[in-house]
Records
---
Amino acid sequence: MTDRENNENNDGLTDFGFESIPRADKKQRVRGVFDSVAERYDLMNDLMSAGVHRLWKRIAIARSGLRPGNVALDIAAGSGDLSAGFARQVGPSGRVFVTDINARMLAVGRDRLTDAGIVGTVEYLRADAEQLPFRSRSFDCVSIGFGLRNVTDKAAALSSMRRVLKPGGKVLVLEFSHPHLGPLEPLYDFYSLTILPKLGELVLEDGDSYRYLAESIRKHPDQEALKALMVEQGFERCEYLNLSGGIVALHTGYRI
């Protein structure tokens, strides 16, 4: 556990972007952000990543290891990009459980997948990543895409994800991370911390949500720290793949 996480536990505070708030308040504050952006979630992702999030998600789907007949769980599924890819991989004999803690986001994902003709193999459930309401050893693959940094207790979420994995099952954590861009890093910082909130204000009249999302990236554990946290929670063969110079990292691990 990192020093910052120990401090959060000791003083009862956690981060909400660059702001320190009571741990008990974070879920409600995060829910407010996603209530605000739910209907424009894909536009939000396009603004934050210049559209490259679609490629990052395709890479995650390709590395899931899912086969026809498998059962997958997509946590913090958002508008359902990962869920859709998993559904195609597991086929009509498999199953994908699509979950989100935010009811509006879950509805957006359900509508989007239904419009794409993905029905029958998917089930939707409002669920908290820290306390997943599934039996142990239920899933061949568990994923969380761009959601872990919004979780109050990341260790609890990872532990819950491991619990519901079958032996041999794989976890995928796709998340904004700490880039290694050399001389371009100041430009990335300026874009994400200054330009992105202004775009949110101009395009969507919601600069505060984008400011939080940009700040939350800075507070998220870096690649090695997240890998260590996964190991602490019992995952094995943990590794990560930096994407776009580490702007995003795909962490993987297994329950053996």
---
Amino acid sequence: MNEALPAALTRPIDAGASGRSPPVALVTGAARRVGAAIARHLHGHGFVLALHHRASAAEAAALAAELETRRPGSTLLLQADLGDTAALPGLVHATLERFGRLDALVNNASAFHPTPLGAASEADWQALFDSNAKGPFFLAQAAAPALRRSGGAIVNLVDIYAERPLRGHTLYCMAKAANAMLVKSLALELAPEVRVNGIAPGAILWPEAGKPEAAKQAMREKIALGREGRPEDIAEAVRWLLQEARYTTGQILAVDGGRLLNL
């Protein structure tokens, strides 16, 4: 659903002296953390953005206001629960209505929490699969016609744990494994007009609930580069896949500092 916005956030984008419209990206989970870094980075490289969030209205509005000070009329705020499949075509429709085209879909939004065997619930299953598998599929399906018209691209945020299991997180790993297959299957289904790739981040941001320093250090010791990454590392990989990797599709790029080498 398109939220009510101040007039400054709903003016048509200025195509500029060249008359060429800027590329348009729809980014899910864009209000916070890695999603916000992706949004800022793409905006800095000339994209106009449809910024999706589920429940982070204040953060999404603040991000939009920040980006609008740099380029007025360059953002659109969208709210939806990705588990509500009936709402997802509306995100694409609102983006097209506002900007007239769609060049990129970034399926970034993701739920993450432990599901110890014996304590996992159907609600856990639903929450983890809604954001990590079901939502990305149905949103990509809704966006496909517009992306075909523009010769656009999709980037999914997968995880290194789609390939190797993380203890205590079976449902999350399963959902991300489904996401990884979604990348490959969509790349086949949408070729040759649309490229579809994924990014598998390693240790980028620690969980919001916190992590003991000893556990952080143990993780760093298993990373070939000896340190965690930055959200900007993921954001630049997204931009590269969208704008420069013109002969790449169906691939999942590990941006993990070499973590997979020592899992």
---
Amino acid sequence: MIEFENVSFRYEKEKPVLDDVSFRISPGSKTGLIGANGAGKSTILKLLCGLEQGSGKITVGGLPVIPENLSAVRRQLGFVMQNSDQQMFMPTVYEDMLFAPLNYGVSREEADRRIDDVLARLNITELKYRHNHRLSGGEKRMAAIAVILANHPEVILMDEPTSALDPANRRMMIRTIRELPQTCLITSHDLDMILDTCETVILLHAGKVRAAGSAETILKDRQLLEECHLELPLSLAGKN
């Protein structure tokens, strides 16, 4: 369970990015976090990880996201960043995948087993010993997911996972998200991807939750989306 209760956040001397935001995300669900630029989507992910601090209460798996709990909270979370270069800092994919499990006390044998299992599941075994600087954008994005999965998080946060991907890699990303057993919270402007992968949606507008519920219901509501400066998913645009 992820829960936000009356959460507000502002950068110094600026208007609030989030204003009294409350929502719940059930275990095992896939939720899309949508809104126009500046709506606060990425800020919510940063607050969940404790990278920013606001007012109100945030809990992950029953643990309040407060400084003394950050280590335990972050062990539950895997954050796939929009820019994979900010996430992958070791020379090879294998070394990046190995880093977190070993630092959390997992044995080398178990870590290697996890790595091989994750790479096979994502169908990217050939990337194991590749140097990160030689990966294409799509390969690096898939490798970034593999790095997170090797640490066995309970919750996966994804910030714009399909941005800048070509059609083939976008399809691969959608298939991967669908097959993930973990709770997923996904920010994206790609509303077709959200419709294809998420059961529920949280729509942010002007720092508040404008709507929350069924992805299909919200993403078919042209008037609601346009009021929040969004457009219907392309797959639905010709049907309404």
